[in-house]
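Hey, I'm writing a tutorial for new members on how sequence and structure tokens pair up, and I'd like a real worked example in the thread rather than a made-up one. If someone can provide the structure for the chain below, I'll link this post from the tutorial.
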Amino acid sequence: MLDYAHLSALTAVIRTGSFERAAQHLNITPSAVSQRIKLLEERLGVVLVVRGQPCTATQVGQRLCQHVEQVALLESSLHEDLPGLQAGNQPVTLRIAVNADSLATWFIKAMARTEGYLFDLVLDDQDHSAEWLRRGEVVAAVTAHATPIQGCDCHALGALRYVATASPEYCAQWFADGFGKSAAARAPCLIFNQKDRLQADWLRQAFGTDLQPPLHWLPSSQAFVDAALAGIGWGMNPEPLVMEHLRAGRLVALRPDQPLDVPLFWQQSRIVAPVLGRMTRTVVQEARTMLVPA
């Protein structure tokens, strides 16, 4: 049998990034944390923690952290059916993968409506967030993948609508003769990171070919809006974030009749589905107030 006091020390080190913060979290000394992990590593015969700033988990260490979190989730579901069962001292943490634009537009409201949990969010592009579920590193994900991942349930949320936006001054400088292919290939464009395909997909949809405009790299949803307002470049912004700016004329849509809708789905691990039932209902309800029908 695994010693769960030792496993809790391992999880605390990985989640907080240091032995000192883990000790504060567990209300024990750093040397006690170190001793617990040393005993666990000796018993299993493998290294579990890569010491550094921050400390990180080896592959086996990460797998054990996932196991501890899943056990905590399953135990929390027992408390609803067995009120006499003593609850743990710490709230259960839900580790979820979510794309930055969902976090910036609607996901926070879903979190606020789900009480009794702590959240550990992993940010990744909607086309890649499902990989965290496949690796077992999260219990749920907001993803663009409609096909259920093995061992998961999938719920359609709707589509997050994006609008190609820029400031009026930017448009006057770069698109004085209209938004054509030649101008679009020269005008500076905003991009979130290497995984962001929204601008490229929209340009292909608009002109039927791939274009390679100059790029500003801005890994922040709010920075995308701010950069568009400042006239730095044009980019695909979530409609909920720019609606008021469009109405006020601070931003303009490059092609108002051509938004880009990205369907989103909530995929959750079936193992902990009873625990995530309330979270799932809240996510689906909140998403449908902000997203458009897919």
